[in-house]
Design a protein that fits this description.
Chain lengths: 284, 266
């Protein structure tokens, strides 16, 4: 059965339900959100239809500008840490036996599916004074007495890298698993050490993949909203936290929507960059 | 790379991934209601608490119900769409594929806020079924991706043979396409199920004040301090996820589902 263009209305039937669901429950809510971002806020948590830019103007204030800057910086730091850790790991993983790969993939998927709440809870326990990692250091005689390592910037960063690491590996996995093994074999035959072959052959061959992965992990990290609250101080809060805060606790939907629209624009810009990086990769 | 270096690096990564879970597992069997590691005494009573304490039990029931229904709805949206795109030449229909992938690509707070404004506008805010629809839309990407992959792996000549021998469209679908696609339906469902079970922000923004799922319950409990039940729920959830993904790997080709070529080189 070859692929054919639809002939009659009946041929379109399978498309009806998915198209309706995605339009009503994704496109319409998205449109509603954009509309609300221009609405006028009323006292008491209500808003009325209008077309004002106040919400966007407020967003560009020094405070929210600072939060945006911090969110972006945090996401960049997470993306770099993850790719630096995950690239050699994924490369070695794709060169192991399939059964070993499967065990790792199951473990990575399990960690990836963990709720942010659970990751936050697990790391706050690990960083706590009473049940934390410092107790192990004390037991080993490396430290005088146990202490709390949270809240701190390092704690937030660790939690976010933990959350994003499995995602990074799974994004890198298809590209690395399909990498032509003869490339490194050639380098090895010509006398390069494994480390040198990795940095002079594998890394340059994957330049576009690495750029695309950095951007995807960056977007993933930008979505983090509970870890900064659970492991950090208020100055470590990201844009996602503030959006939730404005929507739920301050009942300022128009302002929350304006911030969300801005976040979409940043994300879409980066997705476009990823696609461009991918295109260039194909052309090369 | 040399084997010793690889083993050492694998060990470090495994330690990083497992350490928080090891500590939480230790805390979850602590005898007293204190946060202590290594555990003092041994007790499985905190696991019993999940099922015996009505608050935790209700949260567990809410989470499982939500995951079962929303994953089913996600598959119901993804299957006809993926089938249509495989069967027909209709380039503009790809826009729906793009829409199906979008909610998962954007930061989750955006999808959550969009759905919150929508449910508030149409007046259904807080209804439990809105969480089912919200999760189905949020996670439709997963079955859509596995099913699209599944359809590309179907040999079209098989389908051709069936229709040459007189099978109509419906019979072809039931007797040839469906059995071949079934493993991908199951794995797509499994992915959506596990992620829905653990999802926080969309559930919180849509039904957070009327229905407490387990992640919401854990977060609310964290604000009032620590209870060992959180630790046992954490271990229960990660074990569930590992078992489900383990089953997917056991009965399907997991590396292929994740983008590698299949074991026979196809």
């Amino acid at each position: 059965m070859r692929r054919e263009p639809p002939q009659t209305i009946g041929d379109y039937t399978p498309l009806f339900f998915p198209a309706a669901m995605l339009t009503i429950f994704f496109v319409v809510p998205f449109g509603t959100m954009i509309a609300v971002s221009f609405f006028q806020r009323q006292q008491g948590g209500f808003y009325t239809p209008a077309f004002v830019f106040d919400n966007y103007a407020r967003f560009l204030s020094a405070f929210f500008g600072g939060v945006l800057g911090f969110s972006l910086m945090m996401a960049i730091a997470v993306a770099i840490c993850c790719v630096v850790l995950a690239l050699p790991f994924t490369y070695m993983l794709t060169r192991t036996a399939r059964s070993v790969q499967i065990v790792w993939l199951v473990a990575l998927l399990s960690v990836l599916s963990l709720s942010e709440v659970i990751i936050g809870f697990a790391w706050s326990t690990l960083f706590s004074r009473t049940a934390g990692i410092t107790n192990i250091l004390v037991a080993l005689g490396l430290m005088g007495e146990a202490k709390a390592l949270t809240p701190s910037f390092a704690a937030v960063l660790t939690g976010m890298v933990y959350q994003a690491f499995p995602y990074t590996v799974l994004v890198l996995f298809p590209a690395l698993v399909r990498l032509d093994p003869t490339l490194t074999e050639a380098a090895r035959t010509l006398g390069a050490s494994p480390l040198k072959a990795f940095f002079t052959v594998v890394v340059p061959a994957l330049r576009n993949t690495i750029v695309a992965t950095l951007i995807m992990v960056f977007i993933f990290a930008l979505g983090s909203y509970l870890l900064p609250q659970l492991l950090g101080r208020p100055q470590h809060w990201t844009l996602s936290v503030l959006i939730t805060d404005q929507a739920i606790y301050q009942s300022n939907m128009p302002f929350a929507a304006a911030m969300a629209v801005f976040l979409v624009l940043v994300t879409l810009g980066l997705v476009a960059l990823t696609v461009l990086a991918g295109r260039k990769g194909e052309a090369a | 790379m040399t084997s010793i270096f690889r083993k050492f690096y694998f060990f470090l990564i495994a330690l990083f991934l497992a350490l928080p879970l090891i500590v939480v597992a230790g805390v979850s069997v602590n005898q007293k209601q204190t946060l202590a590691f290594p555990p003092q005494g041994f007790s499985t009573s905190w696991y019993g608490e999940i099922f015996l304490n009505p608050e935790w039990r209700n949260a567990l029931i809410a989470s499982v119900t939500l995951a079962v229904l929303s994953a089913a709805l996600a598959v119901a949206i993804a299957l006809p769409l993926a089938w249509f795109l495989w069967r027909r030449i209709a380039p503009w229909a790809n826009i729906f594929q793009l829409l199906g992938v979008a909610p998962f690509t954007l930061p989750p707070v955006i999808t959550a806020l969009g759905l919150l404004t929508f449910w508030a506008t149409v007046g259904f805010y807080g209804q439990p079924w809105t969480a089912v629809v919200s999760h189905a839309i949020f996670f439709v990407t997963l079955p859509l991706v596995t099913l699209s992959l599944g359809f590309t792996s179907i040999d079209r000549s098989l389908v051709e043979a069936a229709s040459t021998m007189g099978a109509d469209e419906r019979t072809v679908f039931r007797t040839v396409v469906l059995p071949l696609i079934l493993p991908y339906i199951v794995s797509g469902y499994a992915f959506a199920f596990v992620l829905s079970l653990n999802e926080y922000i969309v559930a919180y923004m849509t039904v957070g004040f009327t229905m407490e799922t387990l992640p919401i319950k854990i977060f609310n409990a964290l604000r009032y301090g620590y209870t060992p039940t959180m630790a046992s729920v954490t271990i229960l959830f990660v074990t569930t996820a590992a078992v489900i993904f383990g089953l997917v790997a056991r009965f399907g080709d997991l590396p292929k589902l994740l983008g590698a070529m299949s074991s026979d080189g196809k």
